[in-house]
Amino acid sequence: xxxxxxxGGGLVQAGGSLTLSCAASGSISSINNxxxxxxxxGKQRELVAAVSDGGITNYEDSVKGRFTISRDNAKNTLxxxxxxxxxxxxxxxxxxxxxxxxxxxxxxxxxxxxxxxxS
Length: 119
Description:
Layout (H helix, E strand, L loop, with lengths): L3 E4 L2 E4 L4 E7 L9 E6 L6 E6 L5 E3 L7 E6 L4 E6 L8 E10 L4 E5 L3 E6 L1
């Protein structure tokens, strides 16, 4: 198991920046494809960005070129640098860690951090 705690959300004007952090309770070095998801009111949770244990990244189309996901395995922390924020980025952002127990995948989530972008 792993516990995840997000931080760094807040209120920012359009065009501004925020950096989200996700601190894990244990080592993340072997966890593949850790990711950031977001859920806006009335919408489904969607994948924003993911990073493999080897550092390969992928992004949802609307955030490409604006968001950067990274991980620091020594600090057991996942980051999401968000630049050029838009009102449509407003959502609760969640950190996700998928773990394989030899028989099934288990997805662990943080409590979420609110990001609000004003126009």
